[in-house]
Amino acid sequence: MAGKRVMQREQKGQAPSTRERDSDQVGRVREFYTVGQLAELLQLTEMTIYRMINRAELPCYAIGRVKRFRHSDIEEFLAGCRIPAAKPVDPPDQTEQRVKASAGGGIRTSSSRPGRAAKQRPSNDLGDD
């Protein structure tokens, strides 16, 4: 639909609107992005983009008060933000688990629990010699 409007405007000698130009470039990578375009691309708010600029986390070009972001700079930024996947942990061998269980020494009493002190019974010093 937008392509039809662009063709009609071109036939009439009118320039296409900004929205129509943007819709024509859907599959095309831009060289520079505005704050709004970058926010939409990264699914962030414009305020978050401005905060990242102020914290010097996100490289940009400042042309007066206008900010622009080069596509290659954004690619580098995103590569630096990437967190690699964790390596899967192999389950321990079942024979290891049996050995560890048997090395525990069997039944535990309340005084042999780790982290607990054994209860001291008061001595009976009644003089039964």
In short:
By secondary structure, the protein is mainly alpha-helical. It contains six helices and three strands.
Distance between the termini: 110 Å
| Beta-strand fraction estimate | 5-15%
Biggest sheet descriptor: 3 strands, antiparallel
Give me the number of helical elements. 6
Mean pLDDT figure: 76
Decide which structural class fits the backbone. Answer: mainly alpha
Report low-confidence residues grouped into runs of 5 or more.
Answer: none
Describe the structure.
By secondary structure, the protein is mostly helical. The chain has a domain of 55 residues: Arc Repressor Mutant, subunit A, CATH 1.10.10. It contains six helices and three strands; from the N terminus they run H-H-E-H-H-E-E-H-H. It has a three-stranded antiparallel beta sheet. The radius of gyration is 35 Å and the shape is elongated. The chain starts with a helix and ends in a 27-residue tail after the last helix. The mean pLDDT is 76.
Could you give the topology of this structure?
Blueprint: H1 2-12, H2 18-24, E1 32-33, H3 35-42, H4 46-54, E2 61-63, E3 66-70, H5 71-81, H6 94-102
Antiparallel strand pairs: 1-3, 2-3
Helix pairs in contact: 1-2, 3-4
Tags for this model:
Arc Repressor Mutant, subunit A, 129 residues, mainly alpha, three-stranded antiparallel β-sheet, 3 strands
